[in-house]
Design a protein that fits this description.
Blueprint lengths: L2 H21 L4 H10 L4 H13 L5 H14 L5 H10 L4 H10 L2 H18 L5 H14 L4 H13 L7
């Protein structure tokens, strides 16, 4: 490929990247995959991603922080779900690990308890064993680990009203 073709492919990769970012926030890994699937060359992709990063348009750590805030704030997701989503979105491992370190176990337990109280109250007419199983399954699906699910179940079965929690 001659220089003018490379420059043209780079420009097209840059335009495509900007369109993708305009549609919704994305990580560098997601943009790379999309560009590869559209047939852009590695050098054009690398160049476009470097340019977007240099301009501050593409920043994996900002993207990842926003994603974690959304998952823990709006969706009340647990640590495992957050880790899975960060990886799925192509966030580099170093950034993933740094962000996962910032998640406090106490805050995670509080989020799990908050959601669980609502579910527990809604299932008041169910058999106690069925209630426990449903709540446990719910917490695991939300990305909480076994220990948090067990702790929440113990607290709710001891005091369903949540007075001592």
């Amino acid at each position: 490929m001659d220089t003018s073709q490379e420059d043209e492919q780079y420009k097209q990769a840059l335009i495509t990247s900007l369109r993708l970012l305009a549609a919704s926030p994305k990580s560098g890994g997601e943009i790379r995959k999309k560009l590869e699937s559209k047939g852009y060359g590695k050098s054009s992709i690398d160049r476009a991603l470097r340019e977007l990063s240099a301009q501050g348009v593409l920043d994996d750590s900002v993207f990842a922080k926003d994603l974690v805030a959304r998952l823990t704030g709006v969706n009340n997701a647990g640590r495992y779900k957050v880790a899975f989503e960060l990886k799925r979105h192509g966030v580099p491992e170093k950034i993933r690990n740094e962000l996962l370190e910032t998640l406090s176990p106490e805050a995670e337990l509080e989020r799990a308890l908050e959601q669980s109280r609502l579910k527990w109250a809604g299932w008041a007419t169910l058999d106690p064993q069925k209630k426990k199983k449903r709540l446990y399954d719910f917490l695991i699906r939300k990305g909480y680990d076994f220990q948090i699910a067990q702790e929440v179940l113990q607290k709710l079965t001891r005091d369903p009203a949540g007075d001592d929690i």
